[in-house]
Amino acid sequence: MTDQSDSTTVLVVEDERHLADLYAEYLSDSYGVQTAYGGEQAIETLGPEFDIVLLDRRMPVVSGNEVLATIEERGLDLQVAMVTAVDPDFEIIDLGVDDYLVKPVSKDTLVDVVERLETVSTYNERRRKLTSKKLKRNVLEVEKPQPELAASERFARLESEIEELEATVEALASDLERSEIERQD
């Protein structure tokens, strides 16, 4: 699990109230959880305060696919897992989801998926920071003479931050690979 879970917020979108409440209960010890009992309520509720969405695919009136389209239209930076009774087919390749679970889903499976999506989110955010810092370092290395770089405390701090981020990104990548291997077993 990443160090982010205290602030991670999950939106459970499920038209079967007992399942929505059960999933919320599974996650409430470790995450901030909110439920939407259908696609319409999900669309009204969706916003940048959420990090992860657990989304039923087959719901009356507004489907999970329509909720997913709304997420994409609004440009929300969310990790999404479909949690559905619909068996996957090749169309999921083009579906903008990060994971796909077929019901019934156990507590352990649901928690594992949320942890993995949280790790993916953290990994992506740290990769962006690392790339930004490396680009700044590269510009300075091209534009500043080596003695000036060597004398700069700020440049030394930047290099230290890059090393720390590289280690973090590598550890997160290992966690994701290990999680994927465990999931396949």
Which properties best describe this structure?
single chain; 185 residues; disordered N terminus; 13% strand; five-stranded parallel sheet; Rossmann fold; alpha/beta; elongated
How do you describe this structure in short?
The chain is of the alpha/beta class and 185 residues long. The protein contains 6 helices and 5 strands; from the N terminus they run βαβαβαββααα. Strand 1, helix 1 (17-27) and strand 2 (32-36) form a beta-alpha-beta unit.
Topology:
Elements: E1 9-13, H1 17-27, E2 32-36, H2 39-45, E3 52-55, H3 64-73, E4 79-84, E5 99-102, H4 107-143, H5 146-151, H6 153-184
Parallel strand pairs: 1-2, 1-3, 3-4, 4-5
Fold and architecture overview:
β3 (52-55), α3 (64-73) and β4 form a beta-alpha-beta unit. The chain contains six helices and five strands. The longest helix has 37 residues, at 107-143. It has two domains: 9-106, Rossmann fold (3-Layer(aba) Sandwich); 118-184. The chain has helices spanning 17-27, 39-45, 64-73, 107-143, 146-151, 153-184, and strands at 9-13, 32-36, 52-55, 79-84, 99-102. It is 56% helix and 13% strand. Strands 2-1-3-4-5 form a five-stranded parallel beta sheet, with helices on both faces. It is of the alpha/beta class and 185 residues long.
